[in-house]
């Protein structure tokens, strides 16, 4: 394989995750859009909300490793070289960042809805 073709990557992920791929992609896209809309609306990031989101993000990172182990044919004991461990770390980081962004957006929009209903 001399070129990195996005369609081949899509086919590999589709084979590994099945219908879960489309659910995950929808969550990623909608979560990112909700986060960006919240940032535009509030024009700032709140430290308290960010810290809570990061704490939940650690759980999301661990959950992404569990999902990776379920869909993969190999386990963590099969990781032999540095590339394997870099990939495992990258999966954890991607899961943690994604979960942090989504939780931050959810907390922001829920808090906004609660403040409007109380007023």
Which features characterize this protein?
119 residues, mainly alpha, 4 helices
Explain this structure:
The chain has 119 residues and is mostly helical. It has one domain. The protein contains 4 helices and no strands. The N and C termini lie far apart (60 Å).
Query: What's the overall geometry?
Result: elongated
Report how far apart the termini are: 60 Å
How much β-strand is present in the residues? under 5%
The helix count comes to 4
The total number of structural domains is 1
Main sheet properties: none
Taking pLDDT < 50 over at least 5 consecutive residues as the criterion, the unreliable ranges are none
The whole-number mean of residue pLDDT values reads 89
In brief:
The protein is built from 4 helices and no strands. The chain has 119 residues and is mainly alpha-helical.
Summarize the topology.
Blueprint: H1 6-17, H2 20-42, H3 47-71, H4 82-118
Helix pairs in contact: 2-4, 3-4
């Amino acid at each position: 394989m001399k070129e990195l073709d996005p369609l081949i990557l899509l086919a590999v992920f589709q084979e590994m995750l099945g219908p879960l791929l489309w659910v995950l992609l929808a969550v990623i896209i909608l979560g990112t859009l909700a986060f960006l809309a919240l940032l535009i609306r509030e024009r700032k990031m709140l430290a308290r909300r960010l810290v809570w989101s990061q704490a939940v993000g650690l759980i999301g990172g661990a959950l992404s490793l569990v999902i990776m182990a379920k869909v993969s044919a190999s386990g963590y004991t099969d990781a032999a070289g540095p590339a394997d461990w870099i990939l495992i770390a990258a999966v954890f980081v991607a899961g943690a960042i994604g979960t942090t962004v989504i939780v931050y957006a959810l907390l922001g929009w829920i808090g906004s809805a609660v403040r409007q209903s109380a007023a």
